[in-house]
Amino acid sequence: MQPPQGSWGQPPQGSWGQPPGWMPADAGYAVQIKKLDDEAQTWLVLSAIGFFTGFMFLVGPAAWWKASDLKQKYESMRAPVPSNVNNLRLVGILTCVLSALLILAIGGFMVLGFAFAMQHR
Question: Are 87 and 46 in contact (CB under 8 A)?
Fold first, then answer.
């Protein structure tokens, strides 16, 4: 039995007899998207752990930067930006803001304590 023949006696594109391990041309795209999705999920989990363990001053800026980097990669591939990346960016921004407020509050209490100590000398 002969395989179907296309023009010039060649098999039609994408039919029988593809070499072992053959993947469609867009498989590399899907693999890249999967890697970016996994990276976004990992960073989201790490940033949540860092937030709840008190390392938010380190994790916040890193999460914000990584979310911006991932968003740029998705947009360069013309792929929709998943919610993981948007959530990571939100966690990064909120963590940076909370860290800044916490640092300002600690600094304010230190100034007030110093002023109080100088007044009651």
Answer: no
